[in-house]
Amino acid sequence: LDGSSGGASKADGALLPMAEGNSWSYQVTEDGVVTTKTTTVGALEAVGGSGPHKDEQAFKVTTMKKDGTDKTESWQYAEAERVLRYRELSYSASTGELSLEEHWDPDKLHVDWTAEHTAEGASWLEIYEETKLPTGGTESTAESRDRWTVQEVGAEITVPAGTFDDAIVFTKAGGSTSKTYWYVPGVGKVKESGGQVEELTDWEVGS
Fold first, then answer.
1. Residue 163 above 70 pLDDT?
2. Structure confidence by residue, pLDDT tens digits, 96-121
């Protein structure tokens, strides 16, 4: 199902439905400049790279702005009620060449919709090692801590793709940054704020 239907199937209730071919398009606003980006789920494949999950299978997820800049490729593992990030490649907006590789140990949480972590007011800490390998630069590894909090359950949110009345609102604070996410069961992320604002314009999720 896709955005043209006015709503996606809520049959599985996944906050991030991960299947090959699923895609989400967003309007991105940053410092008054509006662009677009699309995230597409590719096939299951070996994660690769040098991190702890290099030999495991995960979905290859590609995000690209409409003008072809700021492309990222990441390998994400879908559990029954969570999606985890294992590795990510970022490409230069000016040259299109690889600029940064990152991997996480044990993983970096993308979203968690277990009952425990979708109750209003729930809060938990994710701790992981983040390794950065900049092209032509020096590898570095540091501990990261992300504090997740469920701000609201059943929130109403209006974005270009439409109005949803069953969003779960999370905040994630780590280091000096804080972001807020609105996820809708069976659809995915419909809005993100913090640094820049992303709003869903269209989506395609297999039934």
1. yes
2. 899 999 999 999 999 999 999 999 99
| R_g of the chain, CA atoms, integer Å | 17
Does the model's pTM come out above 0.90? yes
β-strand 57-65 against 72-78: which pairing, if any? antiparallel
Q: How many residues does the chain have?
A: 207
One-letter amino acid for residue 5 of the chain: S
Q: What's the pLDDT at 79?
A: 94
